[in-house]
Amino acid sequence: MLSLKYGQSELTFDPGRPEGSLLFLEPGRGDRDGSEDELIGSALAQPVGSSRLADLVRPGQRVAIVTGDITRSCPSARLLPPVLAELYRGCVCDKDISIVFGLGSHRTHSRQEQRKLVGDDIYQRVHCVDSDPSSAALIGHSEEHP
Q1: 42 belongs to a structural domain
Q2: Could you tell me whether strands 97-102 and 63-68 are parallel, antiparallel, or unpaired per DSSP bridges?
Q3: pLDDT tens digits, residue range 20-59?
Q4: What pLDDT is stored for residue 119 in this prediction?
Q5: Rounded to the nearest 5°, which phi and psi values hold at 106?
Q6: Residues 125, 96: contact at Cβ < 8 Å?
Q7: DSSP letter string over 64-105?
Q8: What is the rounded radius of gyration, in angstroms, for the C-alpha atoms of the chain?
Q9: Long-range contacts of residues 35-42, Cβ cutoff 8 Å, at least 24 apart
Q10: What pTM does this model have?
């Protein structure tokens, strides 16, 4: 039997049994009440295992925020405003922030797609750019485990 932590509980299964080799996980529903904005704000105000973002940055520091491309379902336009507010709280200016769309092997975005991903206000104020796989540098390999 194997037990794996899952949210606030554990899931147990027997890998020796065929039906135990498949594990169906559903998204956690969370145990906190509140609106989406309240939950995001709370997560930014009290991050797990880290200082608050506003306390980690300083004026003049350049910040890159990497988010998904148009093929991903990440709600960047809803997540970015409170993240930017936290950076502003740390005195980082718009001119020092870049939002990078992680393309992987996907095509580049049109300007309209970038605008849709981040919202009109952010698109007008913050530098938005697609990642460029040709400018990537190999920094190492992860270790394979048997």
Answers
A1: no
A2: parallel
A3: 444 555 555 556 678 888 999 989 998 888 899 999 999 9
A4: 95
A5: -85, 165
A6: no
A7: EEEEE-TTS---HHHHHHHHHHHHHHTT--GGGEEEEEE-TT
A8: 20
A9: 36/78, 37/82, 40/78, 40/79, 40/82, 41/82
A10: 0.70
Written as one letter, the residue type at 3 is S
Mean pLDDT of 81-95: 96
Q: Tell me whether residue 111 is in a domain.
A: yes
The answer to whether residue 70 is domain-embedded is: yes
Q: How many domains does the chain have?
A: 1
Q: Is pLDDT larger for residue 129 or for residue 11?
A: 129
What tokens does 81 get?
């405003």
Beta bridge partners of 63: 97
| 98 in any annotated domain | yes
List the domain range (segments joined by +) for residue 125. 55-133
CA distances from residue 143 to 70, 137, 138, 140, 146 in whole angstroms, order as listed:
31, 18, 14, 10, 10
d(CA 100, CA 114) in angstroms, rounded, equals 10
Nearest CA to 59 out of 19, 87, 100, 25 is that of 87
Q: What are the phi and psi torsion angles at 74 (to 5°)?
A: -65, 125
